[in-house]
Amino acid sequence: MRHFSFSRRRFLRDGTLLALSAPLWSQALAQPSRGDSAIHGVTPVSLRWLDGEVPAAFAGVTWGVPWPQGQVASDSGFQLRDAQQRDYPLQSWVLARWPDGSLKWSAHALGGEQPPGIGLALRPVSAITADLSHGVSEDDTDWTVDTGRIRCRIARSGRYLIDDVWQGDRLALTRARLVLRVQQGDEEADTLARHTYHSQIDRVEVEQKGSQRTVIALWGHHQQPGANRIPFVIRLYAYAGSASLRVVHTLIYDLDEARQQLAGIGLAFDVPLAGELHDRHVRFVSADGGVFAEAVRGLSGLRRDPGAGAIAAQRNGNATPPVAAFSPEVGKRLAYIPAFGCYRLTQHHPDGFQIHKRTSAGQGWVLAATGGRAAGVGYLGTPQGGIAFGVRHFWQSYPASLALDDAHRDSATVTLWLWYPWAEPMEMRGYHDVLGQENTAEQLEGLAITYEDYEPGFSTPQGIARTSELFIDVLSATPDNAHLARLAQRMQQPPLLVALPEDLARARAFGPLWSPARGDTPQRKQLEGQLAWYFERYQQEVEQRKWYGFWDFGDVMHTYDSDRHVWRYDVGGYAWDNSELSTDLWLWYYFLHSGRADVFRMAEAMTRHTGEVDVYHQGRFSPLGSRHNVRHWGDSAKQLRISTVANRRFLYYLTADERIGELLDEQVDGAQALATVLPGRKIGQVAPTDPHGVNLAFGTDWGAVAAAWLTAWERHGDSAQRERLLNSMQTLARQPHGFFTGSADFDPRSGRFQPAPAEQIGISHLSAVFGLTEICSELLDLLPDPDFARAWLDYCRLYNDPAALSAFIGKRVKKNNLAQGHARLTAFAAHRLDDASLAQRAWREFSGGDGGLVAAAGRLRHLTPPDVLAPIDEVAFDDGAPLSTNAVAQWGLAAIALLALLDEIPPSL
């Protein structure tokens, strides 16, 4: 007999019945003028700089803010005010709405006017006519963006991303284009050849034009006669009052990895130069702020001295005196001083860069400097102005390079190489052959020994993507070293405004399973310390294991090998984590909980990686993700649980990033891909007879579908997504055993499940650990349906109670795995049902550690050569268990949820 203390009356009391659909509101929110009255009863949101201090350099910022349900109308204006009651120009727009149509997330942009670091508050004000003034104009061939400090022309088609950039009457930059190099042939047969491709723009769209920010998107491919390769999406960001352009570069890999290799990809542009060669300056910045500073034609160190004034001016980037003022011994011999027109900064390893230079093409390279980590920021120009440029996460995403060519001529070329052509070409092939795994039985045997789900033809990178951020700053003079170091800091850690954790929690951003950190009891202090300890261990592991590289940066490894004192980087499914058991969610909820900038930066990098590299964006497997593997794309399990929107929406809502929004939209019809790529095809899953249907698991599959539809409904106000989502919730709840039925045939068009056989039971420890828990916790409030609420709370209270679960389904079940991680489900049921006994049980499940971390905190063991290659700190547990990212992520999510949901922590914890 079912024990269920949740009543329909209590459900209706606790959840507000909201309107069934939201209207489509204008994307632009009204902007306030000074003196507009605040909306009564709405508490302003306090803002802070993510990194805790006023940015050393600033070129505009975009951020997102959540609002409590029902408090802010979608047509409200907004006001940003500092502690001195000074207002700042603001551009605002809608990111998401609550079901009643009120504003849930708003986005905001500031131009080049930098606000202070303290006392910033954002408040909604009464609606007024929106100020949509902007600096964007168009004609038949081009878009022109005028920020007030620079003018950019962007062609509607053709080869160039940017035709030219002007600063006043000075032409600062021309012909920005993408460059691709592909290697093809047989190395052993000595038939290798390299081909160069150039960008070809297919479509240009102005995605946003407002008073503070303009976004232009360009879609295209790389082209040479008779061949197109590597599609791309480029987004150009320009802010009012700023001389900086942000470039977000996304490539989609489509080469045949067995026959072709990507041997170089970058962004190039030309820089007009005039004046004397000794007044042309080259700068590169190291990651610790040091500056390499030289001129194309150096004046210091010569056998003859040109004069102290000339050398000092050149060293400082200022105009040198006229040549006639040089000492005659130098002035008449300038032509004999070699002019170095070509420079290369190459980051060939995360701990090693080199700077080379040569006089011109065809001449030999001279080693100029070496170092550990470069910031990936450089400058080329004269005392009258030039271009600073940078690649974010430069050393982390090696092999990368900044190259300057022909700086001794009237026009130089700058190339920001995301993968430089002097490195080994990308190795994208599978790391082993078939190994005899021709059929399902053999593949399951392989899975049993290496944890790798291999299948011929599935280990392909075709369709994966990579997104990079680049910056171009137009400067009116050669910057001094301190100024350039500040620009480098901004390019590597772009400033971001964020709401305080308390304001995020007040708005119920991302649901009820987290709360701001507070250490007001010894038990809470203990848990807060353990949460920090585990995060810091992974932060340390990223560094000491060098989890860097173009295709790897952002991810972590899955399981540790205590015998070799390394992570299992070469053992099938134990290598790269690929979001397994919600590592992404652990980091994001820990950021919400702690507000720590370093947690945000790690979560951001992981979202960029897992949303692009671990997911297919075109081709046979699009838009599914790949399970954990030695190669990020190597596993044959192509699943929605990896590509789920649940992992990406945090970065979208906190930053309003358009590329992340594009990834969210890719997943809306993701369920349809399961018609041809069945997740359970090797364990008996059969496709429905309905040609439009798929067989969908209620946990890992439907959780991802629900996240995609919920997010699409909130973002776009599309009532069709709401209806599909509600249909799926209601028909899932009516299954014979609710969530414990496991799966059913599903129509992605309507969102309806077909009834499963009465005797069907499906219980998986993985169902609730890929975002289902978090999404369902929000759905109970957003789309209140009594049957669905009952079904979900049944699952939450029964999963970790085998006796009650056996009675519920009418069949004896054993204790389920991952009990510790599922303690947060028990806690959620306790919270919703106001059940003290369930609350106590949740703490016991959490502290017991079954299927997780028995010892909540490990210890560090320092190892030194010759036992290891280099000194490391290794996490060790008293029971000898290896460090597992699965266990840590689930422990972290459970700890954060229990701290949020349950007030009383047992003293014995």
Automatic annotation (TrEMBL):
Keywords: Signal. Residues 494-904 form the PcRGLX/YetA-like C-terminal alpha/alpha toroid domain. Residues 1-30 form the signal peptide. Residues 136-489 form the PcRGLX/YetA-like central beta-sandwich domain. Residues 45-117 form the PcRGLX/YetA-like N-terminal RIFT barrel domain. This is Tat pathway signal sequence domain protein. It comes from Symbiopectobacterium purcellii.
